[in-house]
Write a structure and sequence with these properties.
elongated, mainly alpha, two-stranded parallel ribbon
Amino acid sequence: MAAAGIDTGEQVIFGATRDYSDFQVITADRKALRTLAHAAGCGGICKRMNGRFFCPEQILLRLINHVGFAAVRAQVLPNVTHDAAFGDAFRAGATQQEAESQLNGRLAKLRMETGELLVL
């Protein structure tokens, strides 16, 4: 598989799943997911990978539910370097409701852009 917008590392990960029937992939590469969902010739790969991807927003929402907002914020906020949206969601003074709203909004947008690729 070679598609513009999907870097070599993601191509390797996508290809490595070929021989597995039960797998999940964690990726922060939203561009690769968008490209995969809409690239000509990737239909079979998309079908095989539908419902298999986790993105950071999903993971953060699950962590908030499991360990609590304060614990997640304490770990995320000091380590946000490349994604300002996570910094905004977990900024000092942000409420759990505000953070979840931002994360859910980003997740909804990504779902619209990537079809059925993300885990429900």
